[in-house]
Design goal:
The structure holds three protein chains of three kinds. Chain B is 80% helix and 0% strand. By secondary structure, chain B is an all-alpha fold. Chain C contains twelve helices and eleven strands. In chain C, strands 1, 2, 3, 4, 5, 6, 7, 8, 9, 10 and 11 form an eleven-stranded mixed sheet that branches. Classes of the chains: A alpha+beta, B mainly alpha, C alpha/beta. Chains in contact: A-B, A-C, B-C.
Chain lengths: 354, 497, 342
Amino acid sequence: MSSLSITGVTKSFGTGPTATRAVDDVTLHVPHGSFTTVLGPSGCGKTTLLRLIAGFLVPDAGSIAFGDTTVAGDGVRPVPPQARHVGYVPQEGALFPHLDVAANIAFGLPGHARAGREGRERVAEMLDLVELPAHFADRRPDELSGGQQQRVALARSLAPQPAVVLLDEPFSSLDASLRGTTAIAVRRALAATGTTALLVTHDQNEALSLADQVAVMRGGRLVQSAPPAEVYLSPSDPQVAEFVGRAVVLPGTATDARATCALGEVVLSEAATGPVALMIRPEQVYVDLTHAEGVRGSVEEVSYYGHDCAVQVRLDDGTSVLARMAGVRHPVAGDTVHLRVTGLVRAYRPAGAP
Amino acid sequence: MAVLALVPLAYVASYVVAIGPVDLWQLLARPRIAELLRNTITLALACMAATSVLGVALAVLVERTDLPGRRLWHGLLVAPLAVPAFVNGYAWVSLDRGINGFGGAFAVVTLSYYPLVYLPVVAMLRRLDPALEETAFSLGHSRTRTFRTVVLPQLRPALLGGALLVGLHLLAEFGALSLLRFPTFTTAIYDQYGSTFNGAAATAMAVVLVLLCLVLLLADLRLRGDRRYARVGRGAARTAVPLALGRWRLPLLATVGGVVVLALGVPAFSLLRWLVAGTSTEFPVAELTEALVATLALALAGAVVTTLAAIPVVWLAVRHRGWASTVIERSTYVANALPGIVVGLALVVASLRLVPVVYQTAGLLVAAYAILFLPRAVVTVRAGLEQAPVVLDDVSHSLGLGPLATARRVTLPLIAPSLGAGAALVFLAISTELTATLMLSPIGTSTLATEFWSASSELRYGAAAPYALLLVLVSIPATVLLMRADSPAAQTERVPA
Amino acid sequence: MTTPPRRATPRTAVALAGSLLAASALSGCGVFGSPDLVVYNAQHEQLLDEIIPLFEEESGLDVELRHGKDLEMANQIVEEGEDSPADVFLTENSPAMTIVDNAGLFAELPESATATIPEQYVPADRTWTGFLARSTVAMYNTDTMTEADMPASILDFADPEWQGRVAFSPTGADFQAIVSAVLELEGEEATAEWLAGLKANGVIVQNNLVVMQSVDSGEVDAGIAYHYYWYRDRQENGTDSDTSALHFFGDQDPGAFLSISGAGILASSEKQDAAQEFVTWLTGTEAQQAMAESYALEYPLNPDASLNPEVKPFDELEPPAVDVANLNGPQVTDLMTAAGLL
């Protein structure tokens, strides 16, 4: 086990005018034993980054190091993937269809360890780790559900005790119901083994809920890497804000730690002055059904999800605002409500401003 | 290997260059060539049209109507594929000598080849999403109008592909047409070969034959390209509601039965008759065994060589897509369009002039088989390698395995079934190959096909019967493989002439 | 995941290993082994299959036959040249021998090999020898024709009255030999005319057996072939000869041409002794008698051998005088190609 350091890594595809920079000067540190998710829309370069780390691709510039060992860049001859000791969990698991579960898990173990008691014990240990029953060892991949396949794929990657585990959108093909439980099982297994892990995803919920650190990529560049709450509540720019969750962005005017906008006065997380764009999460917008405190508006549309609901409100000044509230008691379209903002609000320089 | 596949083309091209346009023109601009051209083209067009009509009609009857016993009919309608066309020709001509010339050739070849249209059309009908038809009904279209406007257009690629295959087969057909006394380029080349070994006139005819084949091949490649985009989503879970035939039921049933009787019953009857007549006088167990052993040995060697040769071709085509790999893959298809007679002629000359050591060896014959049947192996193995996505290699590398270990522990085990299937198809194709075997078989080696040919062309019909029976028996497994209409082989089946 | 293929590794491996084994076994078990004598045979396969075992038994030599047609094999031997695997060449008809002889590829035969054969059937330089003879005939259907309706000369079949009534097999070496005799006796122009007439009149079939069938079934009135096809059928069950009869041309007509089957030894052969032993045996009384008594019914050239008396006796034939060493095969194929028969 070791940390993972990526420094100034760049990778382009194609040559000449049609060349595209898939990964552009990315620097990221994943501490030993921690879990980082790389979040970005499709085509942002996150999978390329992962393949560079795994060794399937060689960076044009920059370096990649596991702990103190540089595996690519810095004039070091790139270490081939089979010598990097990375665990790799691709999309849809990619279990070897001709091998049963036990043989899949034991695949990366040295020859002497694959056969015999040692191998069987390791397989059993790994199945236990990913929370699958021991008798699954004899099953074939096509007898497993998608989630089970992903757990076996993780077990397979962890069995040889890799330095780093890389997961490429491992849950994207699973049903919503399986996705959560599988993800939690994976996180527990990684935590139990103290494995350094990097997971690539386009799903913000997944990225935020699993990781110690979220790295947001856009157009090949790393735009923010921070703990999940910071990325969510204090995104580096409004686009990141809108990518990691629903956001209400309102123009306002700031004076030091406070600003005024259509939702009244809000408290800023960082002091600012003059015209700003304010990013408010819908769950920061409190919908008061009983008291006439705050800014008045009328409910246009309610989407009820059970555990909560989203309420679209048209303020008296015409601004449309999304609020999210617990689903216990909720308004219906046409109701008059009062809104106010709770918690700290992040202010950005408005678009087009110098 | 791909280079070897181009030997026949290179032979024809170098001949054209060597002889020069003037002499070539003199060899070509003569009444005999015009006669052969007329014969070849009219027979090809007539058979392509007849097999198309028959193939589509039978496929629709079996797949989309309430014809009684549809599953049984399907099996019986595919079964003629197990009877090599030259055996079918023998069966008919030995029954009635009046069956010959254009009429006889047209009838026998159509009855032999219609499954080449029938099979892909059936496969396409099964893959069509009935929702399309249901949508058409819901829009108020009648059943017949729906069939014409919705179903038929979608069958077009399968139909055209099958018809082109019939054309290619026909251009290469030697045995049946020779027995039925209808000269085409292939039989004429063989006759010239018999009189001059490798005379200029034979090669000049080969030039024309190759050009005809290339025309069909280009049409086929175009179609293949289109087909990739036109492919219909797999696995329509529901099947369309069968069309009620009503009062047409009995007449149509009789028609389908009639086709089966003509395509299967008559050859079976004729074969059995001669078998009984032949075995009552002599049953040459030793000769039969020897021919069978030689056939199986050659087929085995050819299947192994061809399948091994297919691996690098497929590897390049699937894993390293690029113009070079495409050219290599396609060049094997070009060879596939070349009739056995041209491949045989080219290898005789090339081996004599360039590598006399291999001349008249089993190795050269195996090379000819590899050239002729590489595409079958390529198509099958390709389907297998596509089942082994590159991500599995990535996983294996990440687990510490180098390229060789990955090939051994991941890729090979995964493509093994398709290697087996490819080898099986090639094996069976070789065991019924006639033309190239006649020209290239080593001294003292006779196969089922050559022994059958020698007996039937000397009108020893009874003596030919046991060989014909064995030829049919070895063809049955391939037919069963092909009956699974979805198998990739069904779309590229090449029956040797 | 797509449904993965089932595990098939061990079975496939076994199949592969098995086929490799079989391939190597093949090279050892004699199918590809090296024989004592290689004979390129353009004579009837069945005849050689009958008599070769006699020679093998007597000499203890192992003989391999490669079968083909006269001109195909002659041209093949010329093309193969010094590298030819053939030790001995046997033909149905002599024009093929001439092709090989003209290329200088035959070794001179030992006197013993030609001692029993009349000298007109051996070229002066003894590069090869005749060993069997066959007479040109016309067959006719006895329901539609009588002997009196048959023409005096084979050249008459080119007349328009024979339109659609005469069958022949231009791709066969036999017919090509007959053409070579016509060419030798009548010259190029007359031969080309005759071929053009036949192309217009004739029903083209793939071999002489079919000629006989077509005549016997009444599909045509007459056909050009050699004598033994009809006699063989009479001797067996007669189903293809019971409504037909033979018409022998007389008077040294080209249609009475007596074609000679030849045997020669390739100069390139490294097995001269075995080859000489074989050819000597082939012309000797024992083999000649064996062939005479076989199904073949061709005329043995060794006067000590006697043929079934049912066959028209050899000394009653009236063949034209043709130098057997001088029949031109290549010019015949050219003429026939020009006539559109090939």
